[in-house]
Amino acid sequence: MKAEIITIGDELLIGQVVNTNQAFIAQKLSEIGVRVGLMESVGDDIQEILDAFKVAWQRNDVVIVTGGLGPTHDDITKKAVCSFFDSDLVPNEEIRRHIEELVKKWNRQWGPTYEEQTLFPRKAKLVPNPIGTAGGMLFEEHNKYLFVLPGVPYEMKEMIEQSVVPFLASRNTGSVIRHLTLRTTGISESMLAAQLGDIDALLQGTKLAFLPSPTGVRLRITVYGTDVPSVENLLRETEQRIRSRVEKYIYGTNEEELETAIGKLLTERKLTIAVAESCTGGLLADKITDVSGSSNYFQQGLVTYSNKSKVEVLGVPSILLEQHGAVSKEVAEAMAAGIRRVARTDIGLSTTGIAGPTGATSVKPLGLVWVGYADAETTLAVRFQFGDGRRRVKERAAQAALELLRRKLLKLD
Amino acid sequence: MKAEIITIGDELLIGQVVNTNQAFIAQKLSEIGVRVGLMESVGDDIQEILDAFKVAWQRNDVVIVTGGLGPTHDDITKKAVCSFFDSDLVPNEEIRRHIEELVKKWNRQWGPTYEEQTLFPRKAKLVPNPIGTAGGMLFEEHNKYLFVLPGVPYEMKEMIEQSVVPFLASRNTGSVIRHLTLRTTGISESMLAAQLGDIDALLQGTKLAFLPSPTGVRLRITVYGTDVPSVENLLRETEQRIRSRVEKYIYGTNEEELETAIGKLLTERKLTIAVAESCTGGLLADKITDVSGSSNYFQQGLVTYSNKSKVEVLGVPSILLEQHGAVSKEVAEAMAAGIRRVARTDIGLSTTGIAGPTGATSVKPLGLVWVGYADAETTLAVRFQFGDGRRRVKERAAQAALELLRRKLLKLD
């Protein structure tokens, strides 16, 4: 099956919004062996939308369209697709009931914009939108499929996963693609490549992509084939060869975040944790609490942004702040030990650093971060140098703190 | 001038990489009045690249191509563009000197991949790449321009800003585009549309787009014209008409985040703040500390995830927790007052709620959040119902807390 993705919206063409929908859809289609040949973004212009539909519908088995399904005047995709398939709009009772439920749940008033959204193309099948009011559409002709979905990412994602992928997977046979992503952190792309060694011996015909980001490098293995068992076997073999070379840097697979991996370790070991943050400003606690069930091990977080609160709440001796400054090994250690004591947890974790853009000195440059760790036996701190960019320094510091915790829990060096 | 952007690379079509290049280029072109009509992504396939070139070259004044200029076997853009313009490759001395300098600076060895990159299409002009080895190309025919740039974001960005934008700006006269985005929160897209009323009277020929997200709806005004003063005037007039109808929901313009707007208000009024978070788990403090200079007004954050820490650290009376539960008006108020007292700030802000997926009951559904606020005169809490999705509930709750603070500071109801 060959597919094309068309994303609609002026906000894309003036660069106001980065198009994350395309990559998400492409990835999901690729996972079920549907090959995406082209991705296009067009503006909120009915003629340009129709032109795009025409070309895409000719040369593909599947066309996925997102955007322009909302209730306001600039949302013209429904009009365009009705014109393209020569369909009229009729009231749809299923959509009406669904919107009525949402409106009630949200404590809102029924109004003309909701009324408008109950109208649905006669020739389309409904693709349910469990979390929003804009219903998705499926047009089918001669074993070709055109889906129209809302552009709001969380609604679109739900619909791709719940409806589009299962529907297409059941119709696309004879072509198998499998991907596996190994997530690493604490090692650069070039060091990782060096440790992996000879690439042909490593891959033996499978494919590998390096995907670097500020918080780590993901390694994505891809295998193409015609039957599931042999493809999955090749995938597992390559995974094992990679793991045997760089295992200690791998914290998870596919979409697993570092905080999820840590949550599992803490739960297994029945350990509790608390954090004291300076430069990460709450991001470390935010990441930890993104994990459902984190209330079982996460007791307390403190964002001690001022020196005063470091002293008063954490009991950091003020002499340490005077002698070494807030961004120092000594203060990072005192913060980790302090939060562990205050919250009465097994482990304390801390961050202190210079996120910028101000606050740097010649001896303490922008991006300097100390991460502290304390348990019943050890108190220590590790120094990092993260460069500039306030948000980037925060992200990298929070990741480094989580990775330090993971290595301590697993007794990796 | 009308433009099209073509990005090349298999990694885009399997969704391995989110295409940030397109949005960057589109934004830069838009700023100089060059209108992007279409953006396309194609794979590393010479025929598909040629097809895309052909269509784009026919219908545009400017085509920007990125990707596939590297030195490895899958980089075929140079071959494709030579075939398209019927040009051969010749050694280019300027590129050779540049690569020699880089190779020396990087402490690398000269090799066949560098040799290959010194070859350049005879019919193209060089677009310098100050930080990489792949030279950019400009093909010019009958006042039409096709640029080919590398896909590496930081190289591409440098070349767009240093070469492409100045070149096109000097040739694009007589066409002006201006955008302005008004950022709202605390009101749904459909309520906003209802309050804005008759859209033709509102816009009077200018354009308006509604851009919803979980944390608010952005309103983007666009005006096209031929001279700067009249375009800017129309933009201001539409802005004023919109503001007169929905002013109280607008917290900022363009890229300004709510936390930035609040930072300005707190700084102006010389007020300090501290936050106590339960369901937002650190995200509220994280957002506040994303603003450079926030250490001037943000004193302390507490993530009191357990009831124990709410009682011990914030002094929330345990009878309130027993009688009303942690997710209640009473506890939200006690948390806000508690953190204000503990941190000795002018204002205390708190969140408590059910982020899910577990913890909901029939009277306290998933997504129920109380936001508390305390200053010298008032202590109060506001109830919200945010639906499901753990991360989404956190995002919306943090935004609601910031918005409650903004409204209090501005004395909006």
- Widest β-sheet, arrangement of strands of chain A: 2-1-3-8-7-6
The CATH homologous superfamily of the largest domain in chain A: MoaB/Mog-like domain
Query: Class by helix and strand content of chain A?
Result: alpha/beta
Radius of gyration of chain A: 26 Å
Highest-level CATH class of the largest domain in chain A: Alpha Beta
- Overall strand count of chain A: 17
**Biggest sheet layout of chain A:** 6 strands, mixed
Approximately how much beta-strand content do the residues of chain A carry?
A: 25-35%
Name the helicity range of chain A. 40-55%
Largest interface: A-B, 92 and 93 residues
Please report the number of helical segments of chain A. 16
| CATH architecture assignment name of the largest domain in chain A | 3-Layer(aba) Sandwich
End-to-end C-alpha gap of chain A: 48 Å
Under CATH, the topology of the largest domain in chain A is which? Answer: Molybdenum Cofactor Biosythetic Enzyme, Chain A
